Amino acid sequence: MAVACRIEKWRSDPYYGKVAVVQAGPGYVVGDFTGWIHGAFRDRVELPPGVYRLMSGGGEVECVVEPPSYPWHFAVPYMSGDWGGVVELRIYAPEPPEVPGGEVVELLQEERFSIYMAVVRHRRYEVRCCGKKAGFRSPPYVGDPGIRSMYEVLPDRSANRLGCRDLRREFCGGTLKDVARVAVDASRFADALYLHPIYPAMSYHRYDVVDHFQVDERLGGWAAFEAMRGELGRAGLKLVLDLVLYHVGLRNPLFPGGPFIIRDGSYTRLVTELAARLPRSALAGMLGGDPPYETFLKVWFMPRLDYSRPEAVEYARRVVEFWAPHVDGFRLDVAHGVPPGVWEEVLSPAEGRYVLGEHVGNPAPFYKAVRGFTAYVLYNGLINSLTKGAEEVADAVNRYLALTPPSALPYMNTFLENHDVDRAATRLGGHAQLSMGYALLFSLPGVPSIYSGGECGEGGLAADHTNRRPHTPCPDSQLAKLLETLYRLRSRGLGRGPHWASAKRGRIELKSLQSGVEVGSGGLVFGDTWGVREVRF
């Protein structure tokens, strides 16, 4: 049963139009809008209209933020965007609105209201609904991330130089030289490398960072980094680097004397002394229960920074400032655990670069600080519907569009798999479902990513890290050839502009005012003003 959120007031906001100040404390506010992670909000959170999941009294409740009036629409980035001659709108209303001269589609029906998309060809438009009408003008222009698709690589797993067997714990020995090799090969279907952490760290995945300002010597150090950058540049590949700023590694010199939340100082000092003397494998068997300091998901090796303290904000800003000249963009690890206002300050040195944040839920309160996020709403929808039917897929696509601002759509990282989830081939089972999934990603706005090995149809599970096997080339892969074709079609405008989905004769139609796409188990048909192109799977 949906319940109304405890709304203190509504506040004007230049990005959202208006937001509800929701009281949800005392303490950290945690919900699907924080990806169920602590740290971003305390006592209250500002939310645009929507239906959210919220932790309350030890359990989950559904929290409805209902607009105080209808139709609910503002000419702001959260609800409008000019793609260049075509304007895309979001309208909240309990009944179908009318936009003269435009087309209106219901994307998502909630209990008390629906979210509609409207598409018009004018920068002045009118919304009529519920016995009222209102005029709007000058919606914000939709930007271009400058990247068509990314290839995701976990550096240690770019090769198996060490003969690793325990994929959960052992280093496999991949270097930045190996990364460059596999990335250049992937330039057939990607124009950017999304590179996981390269810093000195305790684990092979390098998310327990020891030094944010160095390149791990195991990967080849700075010389290998510069050589890799040269290889990428010659292949026309940009570099998007993973930034880990929610937490640090247990051996990071910043810990424990820096900006952290320490519950037991003497116990914490004992842990750091052990960490300095013992290998990680020995520590892992000793550390259990609740850590004496706040961490990422109770992982002892990852104490989290306290962004209520200015020293943490300044440290993170210095990390961004240090790496900005060396890269073309950033992926922000656990972005949903850091207050949006902190990101606005921290990311100032990254202006002009592509930035996406990790968010495993609904990023609604973060969009004003970070333009794009990992599209887990779309991922979960597709991975659970592609083995069912066209109607379920269309509903999943439309739900994602309803919950994503028009201005954010081009910057969203869309994917069928990544290093944190099961391989798509394992979840979906067949070549047809994989092909349909990638055809949909490349046909929608956003920056689709292919996780290393995905072009080969690799299988594997997140639970045992078999989704992180060392890279093995697959020169004759039919899936890789399909990705090449889809990548070339994006240069023709595939995926650009407003789209909405419907089911027709067992196929998924992606409609827009400028083009049309049909995706089925046998192939894709893309039509625009230059003609029709059919791609068989």
Describe the protein.
α1 (176-185) packs parallel to α2 and α7 packs antiparallel against α8. The longest helix has 14 residues, at 221-234. The chain contains 11 helices and 25 strands. The protein has 4 domains: 3-65, Immunoglobulins (Immunoglobulin-like); 80-137, no CATH class; 150-255 and 311-490, Glycosidases (TIM Barrel), CATH 3.20.20.80; 256-304, no CATH class. Helix content is 22%, strand content 26%. It has helices at residues 176-185, 221-234, 265-277, 280-286, 310-323, 340-346, 376-385, 390-403, 424-428, 431-443, 478-490; strands at 3-4, 7-13, 17-28, 42-47, 50-56, 59-65, 80-82, 87-93, 103-109, 114-120, 124-129, 132-137, 150-153, 192-195, 238-244, 329-333, 354-357, 372-373, 413-414, 447-451, 500-504, 507-511, 516-520, 523-528, 531-536. The radius of gyration is 23 Å and the shape is globular. With 537 residues, the protein is of the alpha/beta class. The strands form 6 sheets. Strands 18-17-16-15-14-13-20-19 form an 8-stranded parallel beta sheet. One of its GO terms (molecular function) is hydrolase activity, acting on glycosyl bonds. It comes from Pyrobaculum ferrireducens. It holds the Pfam family Alpha-amylase. This is Alpha amylase, catalytic region. Residues 152-490 form the Glycosyl hydrolase family 13 catalytic domain.
Whole-number total of structural domains: 4
Quaternary status: single chain
In CATH terms, what is the fold-level topology of the largest domain?
TIM Barrel
Second rung of CATH, namely the architecture of the largest domain: Alpha-Beta Barrel
- Beta content comes to 25-35%
Provide the structure class: alpha/beta
Quote the average pLDDT. Answer: 96
**CATH superfamily heading of the largest domain:** Glycosidases
Number of helices: 11
Main sheet specs: 8 strands, parallel
End-to-end C-alpha gap = 43 Å
Helix content: 10-25%
pLDDT < 50 runs, ≥5 residues: none
CATH class of the largest domain: Alpha Beta
| Cα gyration radius (Å) | 23 Å
Q: Would you count the extended β strands for me?
A: 25
Q: Which shape, going by the Cα principal axes?
A: globular
GO molecular function: hydrolase activity, acting on glycosyl bonds
Protein name: Alpha amylase, catalytic region
Keywords: Glycosidase, Hydrolase
InterPro entries: GH, GH13_cat_dom
